[in-house]
């Protein structure tokens, strides 16, 4: 799957105690910029931008693992762990 350049958004549900917003801009080269709660900005390489895209789309972890393992030289299990690590890191920020 090729992710199209553009801007993608995620707003946590009202009942989520973390209450956060994500704004992801995917650049034509596949890199990205993730803005967390309008106060933290992360510059992402292509792989991290793809993970962030799946996070913004609220994709299931196992689906992300399958997609990433198709595109990169990693197992689905490793891709799922990397995705979960990124998601946890973003939630801490």
Question: What's the structural blueprint in terms of helices and strands?
Answer:
Layout: E1 6-11, E2 21-26, E3 32-36, E4 40-44, H1 46-56, H2 61-71, H3 76-92
Antiparallel strand pairs: 1-2, 2-3, 3-4
What attributes characterize this protein structure?
globular, 42% helix, 93 residues, alpha+beta, four-stranded antiparallel β-sheet
Can you describe this structure?
The structure is a single chain. The protein is α+β, with helices and mostly antiparallel strands and 93 residues long. It has helices spanning 46-56, 61-71, 76-92; strands at 6-11, 21-26, 32-36, 40-44. The protein has a 4-stranded antiparallel sheet, with helices on one face.
Number of helical stretches of at least 4 residues = 3
| Rg of Cα set | 13 Å
Mean pLDDT: 90
E-strand count: 4
Distance between the termini: 28 Å
- Percentage of residues in helical conformation: 40-55%
Secondary-structure class: alpha+beta
Q: Which strands sit side by side, in order, in the main sheet?
A: 1-2-3-4
Describe the biggest sheet?
A: 4 strands, antiparallel
Write the element-wise H/E pattern from the N-terminal end onward: EEEEHHH
Q: Please indicate the percent range of residues in DSSP E strands (runs of 2 or more).
A: 15-25%
Would you identify the regions where 5 or more consecutive residues have pLDDT less than 50? none
**Shape descriptor:** globular
Short description:
The protein has helices at residues 46-56, 61-71, 76-92, and strands at 6-11, 21-26, 32-36, 40-44.
């Amino acid at each position: 799957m090729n992710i199209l350049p553009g801007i993608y958004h995620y707003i946590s549900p009202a009942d989520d105690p973390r209450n956060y917003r994500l704004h992801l801009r995917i650049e034509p080269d596949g890199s990205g910029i993730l803005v967390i709660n309008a106060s933290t900005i992360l510059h992402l390489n292509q792989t991290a931008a793809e993970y962030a895209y799946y996070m913004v789309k609220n994709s299931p972890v196992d689906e992300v693992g399958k997609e990433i393992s198709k595109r990169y030289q990693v197992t689905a299990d490793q891709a799922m762990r990397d995705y979960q690590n990124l998601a946890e890191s973003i939630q801490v920020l």
